[in-house]
Amino acid sequence: MTKRFIYIISFAMLLSVVTGGCRKKLADLYYDPDQTVQPSIEKFFTEMLNNNRVRPSYWNIRTFVVMHTGIYTQSIGYLNTTTAYQQNAGYTQDRWNDFFRPGIAANGNSGIMAHYRLIESLYESITDDQRKANAEVFLMAANVVMLDQASQIVDLWGDIPFSEAGSVNTSGSIVMPKFDNAVEVYDAILEGLKNAALYFSTTQLPTAAHALFSKQDILLNGQFDKWQRYANSIRLRLLMRLSFVNEEKVKTEVLNIINNPSLYPLIDGASNYTPVTTDVLLQPLTTYAEDLHNALSEVFNYSAPDHLLNKVMKPSNDPRIPVCFDKYGRTEGDQFIPNADYNGLPVSANAEQQQVNLGRYAILDSATFLFNSKLPGIVITSSEVNFLKAEAWERWGGGDARAAYETAVRQSVSFYYYLNSLSTTLRTPLAQPAANVVDTFLQSDQMKYAGTINERLAKIWVQKWVHFGFLQSVQSWAEYRRTKYPVLQFYPSTLPGYEWPPSRLVYPSSETSYNTNYATVKDKDVRTGKIFWDVK
């Protein structure tokens, strides 16, 4: 396997030179040939969905995940350099820009807020009642996407420009947007998601209008039921994130959602779970031919993480190991020596010790992750939703927490084998493990749903962290800070002020230098500050 890995590295580097970008495929969806100077709502909607911060693009993985959230969650292997925990100001500025502004960087990200404000403005300008009714579906779907992404910006930074952000696209005036309190932003997001879910549960469109929405909807193919489930599921995620802040209020709302599936359907795979049709996944465009091998190898992030593999997965004989990792090996002289077992890169060693011994440790699976051009962007999965349900029922009663936990784990196993099945260039995809294999896994001492309430909750939280992996490290970092699980040990850096990972990102220079409203949040702008839901 490792000889193949080395060969494919060379081949893939050649391939990357001759493969082009994927955005040309969007031309017929984004540009209206009959309205070359007046873009339409549906075109902006498609461009808004085409988000390489959702998809596992080179730029997002290389500059944000492996340098920030992947390290803070230990969902990625990394070297314990002195700057490991230091935020890269340029790359986090890019992440900020890619939410608020379109086309700032050369990485093709969509500027969620800017596009949403354009859609709002165009919608308000429509005077014909029928046209406006037909266009509302684009506004509501765009709102769900914007709110989902805005919650992630809050989770990374805290207070953010929100209510006045992007106002140049609605008012025509350049306004330095105020920083809205993170609590108020979350409240607005939750209310907006609730209203959007209600809209999609009742709306009906003329056939032609629905067909247009389906054509432009590259995320959910115009399925109203799935948009409703998506909105409800993000709302559930965010309510649970608040559950240690305002527990009684959250308890009432969450139990109302998860105990009334006919009113509040979720992305949970309750009837029949198939990742590609059940989960909310942003598929790569058909012309996309790149992969993550460069993003994960340029600064040695392909090694298997210590805690994930050595402390969690190996002790339980986790059936996901073969599709998550390769054993790898090392070359001595002219002889390749394969590793006998899967072992993660020790987090307790210094960078020099780690680097000279990289070949002795497992790496991320080459078929599933390194050379898989078909990896989708993960918006939300059934496994996550069922872990949320398990936590809620464990803490507050009203449902079968054990069944939800076991369902979530089974779905996670299925999900990672699905990702592996998407890559067919390196080897034949591995077959899904038999049901009895997963049954045995769930009954192992490490996995069995038993013990005190705190022990059971810990199992839910740790397994959700496993499921998130590095592909959803933004969600993983939020949940790690909220729950304090898993219990991770970090190697202390010798760089003063950056000895340990941060608990939030500091604001980019675009805000500190140019937004006059920065003064209202300046005192909070420290890397040791906490997001309001981080109280445990």
What keyword list fits this structure?
two-stranded antiparallel sheet; 2 domains; SusD-like_2; mainly alpha; two-stranded antiparallel ribbon; Serine Threonine Protein Phosphatase 5, Tetratricopeptide repeat; 536 residues; single chain; 51% helix
Q: Biggest sheet: strands side by side, in what order?
A: 1-2
Task: Please describe the biggest sheet, giving its number of strands, its sense, and whether it closes into a barrel.
Answer: 2 strands, antiparallel
Sequence stretches where pLDDT stays below 50 over 5 or more residues:
1-28, 30-38
CATH structural fold name of the largest domain: Serine Threonine Protein Phosphatase 5, Tetratricopeptide repeat
- The structural class is mainly alpha
How many structural domains can be distinguished in the coordinates? 2
Q: Percent range for helical residues? A: 40-55%
Mean pLDDT: 92
Question: Total helix count?
Answer: 24
Radius of gyration: 23 Å
Gap between N and C termini: 43 Å
How many DSSP E strands?
A: 8
CATH architectural category of the largest domain: Alpha Horseshoe
Principal-axis shape equals globular
Query: What's the CATH first level of the largest domain?
Result: Mainly Alpha
Measured by DSSP, the beta-strand proportion falls in under 5%
Protein name: SusD/RagB family nutrient-binding outer membrane lipoprotein
InterPro entries: SusD-like_2, TPR-like_helical_dom_sf
Keywords: Lipoprotein
